[in-house]
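Suppose you are handed a protein chain with no further information: no name, no annotation, nothing but its sequence. What can you learn? This example shows the usual starting point.
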Amino acid sequence: MFALLAGLLALAARAAEYAPVLPGLKLAFPADYGAHPEHRIEWWYATGQLDTEAGPLGFQVTFFRLRNKEADANPSRFSPAQLLFANAAVSDPAHGRLRHDERIARAFPGLAEARTGDTDVFIDDWSFKRASGGYAVRIPAEGFSLDLVLTPTQPILLQGEGGYSRKGPLPSQASGYYSEPQLAVTGSVKVGGRTIAAKGTAWLDHEWSSQILAEDAVGWDWVGLNLEGGGALMAFRLRDKDGGTVWASGTLREAGKVRIFGRDEVRFTPRRTWRSPRTGVAWPVEMAFEVAGEPWVVAPLMDDQEMDARGSTGTLYWEGAVTATGPRGATGRGYLELTGYGGRLRF
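A reasonable first move is to predict its three-dimensional structure. Written in structure tokens, the prediction is:
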């Protein structure tokens, strides 16, 4: 018992070294489009589905920023006080193949930065930048490349209480969090040595936090759906080691009206698992979930969408393009993210 208490106090002390996200947070734009370097971790996470002459494709691009406070005292301009990571992937259901790549770098002006004031994050020639009202995404990766423009068609969707999104029972277990659903996508994708025109719809999440997981949480299930007709649905839960729900939340926007759902209104139930032949992890790739008692089901475009990012962020997760069916004939497309099934999520 004393060892557990000591561990909890140590974790609390470590979290306190970073700026917390607390109730009453008020987001302001364009500043909150940009980086929040005083917080421990942050990510810009874009997922979407594309229509091409070669068939449907899914894509995801994520840039992470991690503050390494232990390097603050290092006066060198090469000090690793801020670390940057990036993951990118293309799901190709026609060939049953996931192409993915990753980058890691210490922040350094002109080479790798997550800039404040507006979205502008890059590692070498990988970049994600807001300009001219949209987002330019350029990812020349190993085995594929993305050259896309993501253009907003709707207002920003603030998650939680005006952008303050609880992630656990303590007020500090929270993130600043907004989404931009129903992004119109145009551009090109290069796969198999062939560049093809692409258009579709995407979803962008931007979050920052200093204490993203409750102590008893091992990972999360998250889904973001662009619904037919222009709606948007996000739901997540944090799981404990036994599969129980530590915390949950959700947001639905339909016809311009936004509903926020609390912990007891969101439930996830795995329907079918797929076991990775590489890692041996069983992922619940087909998931049922309820939001305020209304049932939804998401199914993958293909089962093998496992992302092994242990060489950069240190995480193993499943990140997949899915289709969705819901109440009263509702349908949508989006992404399902699963973490913590191969061991507790660690950054």
